[in-house]
Design goal:
Helices cover about 55% and strands about 15% of the residues. It starts with a strand and ends with a helix. β1, α1 and β2 form a beta-alpha-beta unit. The chain is of the alpha/beta class and about 220 residues long. It binds erythose-4-phosphate. The site of erythose-4-phosphate (E4P) has 11 residues, from α7. Erythose-4-phosphate binds next to α7.
Length: about 220
């Protein structure tokens, strides 16, 4: 499974990239607002850091407006993906942009029917929001399994990005389900590394290393 970072925080992206753990980036206006930076400037900087796809979302409501935004975004760096909302206008934009060679990511997907339509329209990526479904007492991960089954049945080329990830278990469940990608916020990414037994084990080995040397030194 590819891991994308769901952030526009350049430091976090650099850190994950240094471990070879950042296959791409997803952003939305809320994520960029958190950084307090201009859209173009931050996307430009991210694009210089990673070679994978970078999803950028505009505010166009008609297909023409969305396509115009996407053409502008694609000038901001390499591998820019146009994020478009799951609406009729959004899917018109998907068709037009994919035909022009600009990859699209259909966002705000909450049902298998929406994913089927996005795949048929030719989206490169489809982003079901698991956390927001869990928030309203619906099973977000069950939606991922349904969408993956539909894509497999018909050999659609779209890749599923498990989005709105809230916990390490969402990432693990995404991998178990066979999702193509999980887009992970930095706080969840950091949690993926931790285990108390790892910390305990490191501490014990350091102490024993020192004890072993001290014991050997005492024998000399
Ligand atoms: C990514 O493509 C989505 O915009 C993001 O994962 C949404 O996350 P949220 O539901 O935590 O805002």
């Amino acid at each position: 499974m590819k891991i994308f970072l769901d952030t526009a925080n350049v430091q976090k992206i650099k850190e994950a990239a240094a471990m070879g753990l950042c296959d791409g980036i997803t952003t939305n206006p809320t994520i960029i607002l958190k950084e307090g930076r201009d859209h173009k400037e931050v996307i430009n900087e991210i694009s210089a850091l990673i070679s994978g796809p970078i999803s950028v979302e505009g505010i166009g409501e008609t297909a023409d407006e969305m396509a115009k935004d996407a053409v502008e975004f694609s000038k901001w760096g390499k591998n820019i993906v146009a994020k478009v909302p799951m609406t009729k206008e959004g899917l018109k934009a998907v068709r037009a942009l994919e035909a022009k060679g600009i990859p699209t990511n259909v966002t705000l997907v909450f049902s298998p029917a929406q994913a089927l339509l996005a795949a048929k329209a030719g989206a490169s990526y489809i982003s079901p929001f698991v956390g927001r479904l869990d928030d309203i007492s619906q099973d977000g991960m069950a939606l991922i399994a349904e969408i993956l089954a539909i894509l497999k049945n018909y050999g659609f080329k779209s890749q599923v990005i498990v989005a709105s990830v809230r916990s390490p278990m969402h990432v693990v469940e995404a991998a178990k389900a066979g999702a193509h990608i999980a887009t992970v916020p930095p706080d969840v990414f950091d949690k993926l590394f931790s285990h108390p037994l790892t910390d305990k084990g490191i501490k014990m080995f350091i102490e024993d290393y020192k004890k072993a040397n001290a014991a050997a030194g005492a024998k000399k």
